[in-house]
Amino acid sequence: MGVSVASLGFPRIGLRRELKTALESYWSGRSELDALLSTASTLRRVNWTSQKEHGADIVPSNDFSLYDHVLDISAMLGAVPEAYGWKGGTVDPVTYFAMARGSQGCCAHGVTAGEMTKWFDTNYHYLVPDLTADQTFRLSTTKVVDEYREAKALGFQTRPVLLGPVTYLLLAKIRGDQEVSPLGLLERVLPVYQQVLEQLVAEGADWVQFDEPGLALDLDDAARAAFRTAYATLTAAVPSIKIMLTPYFGALDDNLDTALSLPVHGLHLDLVRAPEQLADVLGKVRPELLLSLGVVDGRNVWRADLSRLLNGLEPIFRARGNLVLAPSCSLLHVPIDLARETDLDPEIGQWLAFAVQKIAELRTLATALEQGRDAVRDVLEASDRAASLRRSSPRIHDLAVQTRLMAVTPEQSCRNAPFARRRDEQQAWLDLPLFPTTTIGSFPQTPEIRAARAANARGELPEADYTAFLREQTSKAVRWQEEVGLDALVHGEFERNDMVQYFGEQLSGFVFTKHAWVQSYGSRYVRPPIIFGDVSRPHPMTVEWWRYAQSLTERPMKGMLTGPVTILNWSFVRDDQPRAATCRQIALAIRDEVQDLEAAGAAMIQIDEAALREGLPLRRRDWKTYLDWAVESFRLTASGVADRTQIHTHMCYSEFNDIIVAIAAMDADVISIETARSKMELLDAFVQDAYPAEIGPGVYDIHSPRVPTVEEMVALLRAARERLEDRQIWVNPDCGLKTRKWPEVEPAIANMVEAARLLRAEAAA
């Protein structure tokens, strides 16, 4: 009998974002590959050491990635699209990073990056496997075995982690033939997985963790059969290694019998997202199957209520004896160490736990189960005290916010007139050309801007000087936009640190960290706000910067806001009330800002809902509830304006066919979306449902350093014209340009404006 503590995966980025620094140095040519690989090796060693020191018995290897763990599997399988010029053998770093980021140079033939989308319902992005119906697979990297061997040499017996073969294929696309299921390639994929397992056994591995979050999805009989085939094949072929099957992000539900039937040795349960599934599992599970209980939240930052968890765990431990305690999922989605947040409000800080604290919480639970609660009495009392103080803190609840929310009427979520009438009024007022050009909002945050912000934060640059500097940057950006020929301008957002943090810092109910970074994709990290209490807007947030920017030009200047659903989904959200209630509170705060912008003279107001799709529940039965309150929240922000005020929104990578009815129900006048990587394929959903409003399909992939040519953009716009009416089409990049550099942005936007000019000439011919 015994209890083990397992980590399912750990943040890759480093306490001081060492991976970001090393990647960007390598990409820019300032350092060699050896320096990047050395940093990566150091981070892995630090991670293994830290997890062990904080109480993990089982630590993972191969949870580290230079860019993305799904891309790592594509590289392992040799699933490299022909365009990247790979000739076989080992997938080299040039090819790997070309798949991730695209390439302007000759080595990878100047190709675009692979399609990227959200990892289930998180804010992490993965590279979509790009396969063909006749795809062949062969072992093409040794990363899994290399990192296991590396850990073993340092004294760590790790449990290697691989994304399972079925989930990998469920995430894949078959290029050129959407009727062919990627699951049909399973028999070709399994021999490579088998080869990896055999190599791990040869190196001394005794367990392997197969992540199969696909088991939390709605699956058909073919997908369930694929799971049975996959694990029957692998366990029969390599019987000497034990498999921990690791679904997460939701309940197994109607996939439970499939999961329990698989010939694996352990099963993980996400009991944070789906605590209700435990009873069903305990009633059906075979005695010899090792259960891994995900009882600590791997996706949020709140401290666990340890006594409450023990109340549920103790009878299970008495009945089964052997247990593994783990986070609900990989800790990739939370910051690394709360101890670094020395400036955090201490009252709120005591309510939080980051990755290393979560492992320590699991160690406390394991000790209490094995030795009794008295063995960790002080820790349990501290946990009880923190939970009680959080429940009773007067900083959590604001009666004025709650009263206002209760008074909201359905009329407050409706525009005055239908879109067709609004469009006529807006065109008469704005007088825009066919295929109007604009950008999504932000311009490059240069080293000079970041340095000035840091100096201001340290008190070294006076506020007046900092404001003058930002005004100068804004003025330059406005002049450049006029010179390049954009039709609808933005002020560039130089005063903003982040599209969510900037607003959260000015809203009540939020708290912020200094070092709590998490990975969004590649070297793109974010510091999500923490929503701990009721939300309201004490004062206007953007009006003065919009007013200044508009004073510099006669062209329309968009007011730029982040929408309530995105603020919610890109924050660590309080877990003591429904997410819908928190979202509506944010919506009322943003509604106040929209009305103040309109009163100041804004003719266009963009309310970004980049994260609407990623909040969609994994099970279809739950979609309507989420979409109803998400759409209502957006409409609540946007519906208090006059008909002639044009409301824009923006959405990031999404499977729009899943939510097209909800997008239409948002009743925005213009939506901009990311379509460059999908070659306008995502527009098909808007065509099938006859989307009535205007659309800006992205023609410039801002996640890649490539500068697309005029011809590429014209080709994309022609593809858009095949799907949409000319009057519907706007011309814009995929997303904001904050992370790019001006030498990339200037020619790319100039090419975009020229592409729009050529399209106007074609339309007039």
TrEMBL record:
It catalyses: 5-methyltetrahydropteroyltri-L-glutamate + L-homocysteine = tetrahydropteroyltri-L-glutamate + L-methionine. GO terms for biological process: methylation. 5-methyltetrahydropteroyltri-L-glutamate binds at residues 17-20, 118, 570, 614. Zn(2+) binds at residues 650, 652, 674, 735. The active site is at residue 703. L-homocysteine binds at residues 440-442, 493, 608. Its EC number is 2.1.1.14. The keyword Zinc applies. Keywords: Amino-acid biosynthesis, Metal-binding, Methionine biosynthesis, Methyltransferase, Repeat, Transferase, Zinc. Residues 435-757 form the Cobalamin-independent methionine synthase MetE C-terminal/archaeal domain. CDD domains: CIMS_C_terminal_like, CIMS_N_terminal_like. Residues 6-316 form the Cobalamin-independent methionine synthase MetE N-terminal domain. Pfam families: Meth_synt_1, Meth_synt_2. Catalyzes the transfer of a methyl group from 5-methyltetrahydrofolate to homocysteine resulting in methionine formation. This is 5-methyltetrahydropteroyltriglutamate--homocysteine methyltransferase. It comes from Gluconobacter vitians.
